[in-house]
Amino acid sequence: MGILSRFGNLWNGFWAKLLGDVERDNPEIVYQAAINERVNQYQKLMKAVSGIVYLRNKLEKDHEAKTRELADITAQIPVAVQQGEEQAALVLIERKNALTTELEYVKSELAKVSDQAEEAKGSLVTFQHEIEKLKSERDTMLAKREHAKARLRIQEQLSGLSTDADIRALDGVRESIHKLEAQADVSKEVSGAGIEGKLKKIREATGSASARAELDEIKRQMAGQSQQNVEKTM
Questions:
Q1: Is residue 168 part of a domain?
Q2: pLDDT of 181-206, one tens digit each?
Q3: Which domain holds residue 86?
Q4: In angstroms, rounded to a whole number, what is the distance separating the alpha carbons of residues 95 and 77?
């Protein structure tokens, strides 16, 4: 095999694989293409059936016209004989025989064309059903595909392996909030470790000591007053 032939096969294989990947990722396009192809075939068949039906109708009209003419001629022959018009009678008889032959031919052709028309109409109905069936299959399969994709997304979310953009965005927001909280904690810790933090602790301790001393004084006064009351009572 020549190098050009091998390269051509490789190139064709590449495009076939690429096309296959595109078709798998876009099933709606594949289904629509198949439906369009059947619609085109249906339209072509419709034209063919129209031609057959036209020929059948033409043969039917021809058969009716010749049948009427044959009936008229058959009725005219005895009249010509009665009137002694032998020459006219002979012409009528010849025309009658010719019409009989023509009618047999038209009748035979009409039967063939009628059968073809019925068969063609049956093919049209089959094509219609095929198109509707394919459309129904497309809708069903695409719905199943979307349902399967939704189930996969749920499974990925439950397993923590989801790659959806909204999930990634939520994870990013959560992480940024946690970082802000950490920064606030660091600021608080740093503030408590500085001079201001120490002074604040001293003030708080001083306030607590003052309050404790005041509380002790109140308790002492209340104890002294209670002792005086006891002495008075005694």
A1: no
A2: 777 666 666 555 555 556 566 666 66
A3: 3-163
A4: 10
